[in-house]
Amino acid sequence: MTRGRHPLNAIDEAVEIACRRGSVEPVSGRRGIAFDFIIIEPDRVVFVKVKRSQSSFTYALEILNQYQREIASLHQVALTSITAREFWVRSPNGTWQFFLIRHDSVLEIWADGMYIPRESIPVRTVDLSGTPADGTDAPVSPSEDGD
């Protein structure tokens, strides 16, 4: 019984995507190595691990559950101001998801390495004295804070 394409096909596709970002250096002797290839961009060096997945991920933190061991090994790569660690996942239908692995978080990114902007909702805060946190002297009326 076969389990799908050999994972090298995913790596070959990933290298094609990576070539759009900069020079790609393959890693020889993949066994025991935390990453599959290195992208050398003008301003940083990116260490990339590629995996295949049965489905796409809705939340970036889902990959921590699915690929805990692979991401832990990717943490062996030192994170500095000029290095980055990325985890690329290919679903069976051929779509790719890209994740930036930081010390304390996982962020989904575009194929070009840029962050995917999330919608931000402005929140008005009030300190305990009843004045707006922005430092103005105008007290907050009950109609403004939703009561």
CATH class: Alpha Beta
The largest beta-sheet arranges its strands as: 1-2-3-4-5-6
Assembly state here?
single chain
Percent in helix = 10-25%
Count of runs of 4 or more consecutive helical residues: 3
> How many angstroms separate the termini?
63 Å
Folded structure, characterized:
With 147 residues, the chain is α+β, with helices and mostly antiparallel strands. The protein has one domain (7-109): Trna Endonuclease, Chain: A, domain 1, CATH 3.40.1350. The protein is built from 3 helices and 6 strands; from the N terminus they run H-E-E-E-H-H-E-E-E. The protein has a 6-stranded mixed β-sheet. The longest helix is centred in the first third of the chain and has 13 residues, at 7-19. The protein is globular.
Topology:
Elements (H helix, E strand, L loop, with lengths): L6 H13 L3 E4 L10 E4 L4 E8 L9 H5 L1 H7 L8 E8 L5 E6 L4 E4 L38
Parallel strand pairs: 3-4
Antiparallel strand pairs: 1-2, 2-3, 4-5, 5-6
Task: Tag the structure with descriptive keywords.
147 residues; alpha+beta; Trna Endonuclease, Chain: A, domain 1; globular
Structure described in brief:
The protein has about 150 residues and is an alpha+beta fold.
